[in-house]
Design goal:
Blueprint (H helix, E strand, L loop, with lengths): L2 H11 L6 E6 L4 H14 L3 E5 L11 H4 L7 E5 L2 H11 L2 E5 L6 E2 L9 E5 L8 H6 L2 E4 L11 H18 L10 H10 L4 H8 L1
Parallel strand pairs: 1-2, 1-6, 2-3, 4-6, 4-7, 5-7
Helix pairs in contact: 2-6
Length: 202
């Protein structure tokens, strides 16, 4: 590994945000999923959750949309909603679903300096009632046009870039925030050899 490559990967890892994630529930198109992955990588999300309870489990993502982003993320796949949410709740304090309802709050009222998981649903049916029941609330992205919906990958990008804006203002990207064991594991997964790790620890 060249010094430039090594420094680049460390710089990226130091900006990963352990208190922000995306949950994709029954998103059918793998290109939508991979586009979401690319955006997650861009804003420093490491863990994402892919839940398939009403569609077949995904075997691969749309590589052209992700630009191989999947290999830099930790993707958790589930086919059971309860099991998925148990794992999500272990790491994230608040869960919000994208769902138009009378009690839905604006994206811009969510406090992303806290620990948050955002759930995006199926391209046609949206988030399931079962998922909505397990969430802390619903949110909407304010829109001024006639068509009151966005493509899922666009909606996700808009949402997590708002999270990045808030987290940047709060200084969350100014120092490494991953737990040391997770940090070390990812270094190894990203191709760091024993000699590289020893040099870092000196």
């Amino acid at each position: 590994m060249t010094p430039e490559r090594r420094n680049r990967l460390i710089s990226v890892l130091n900006k990963r945000q352990p208190d922000l994630t995306v949950v994709l529930e029954n998103v059918f198109d793998p290109h939508n999923i991979s586009a979401v992955m690319r955006t997650c990588d861009a804003v420093g999300i490491q863990d994402i959750y892919v839940l398939t309870t009403k569609i077949p489990r995904h075997k691969k993502w749309g590589a052209r949309s992700s630009s191989s982003a999947a290999k830099w993320l930790t993707v958790h796949q589930f086919d059971n909603l309860d099991a998925c949410m148990v794992e999500v709740r272990k790491k994230y304090a608040k869960v919000f679903t994208t769902h138009l309802s009378s009690d839905a709050v604006s994206l811009y009222s969510i406090n992303f300096t806290e620990s948050v998981a955002l759930v995006f649903g199926n391209e046609h049916a949206g988030v399931s009632e079962e998922m909505i029941a397990k969430a802390d609330g619903n949110f909407i992205i304010p829109q001024m046009g006639i068509i009151q919906s966005l493509n899922i990958s666009v909606a996700c990008a808009v949402s997590i870039y708002e999270a990045m804006r808030q987290k940047t203002n709060a200084g969350h990207y100014e120092q490494a925030r991953l737990e040391p064991p997770v940090y070390q594991q990812l270094l190894q997964e990203w191709g760091f050899k024993a000699d590289d790790l020893e040099t870092m620890n000196e």
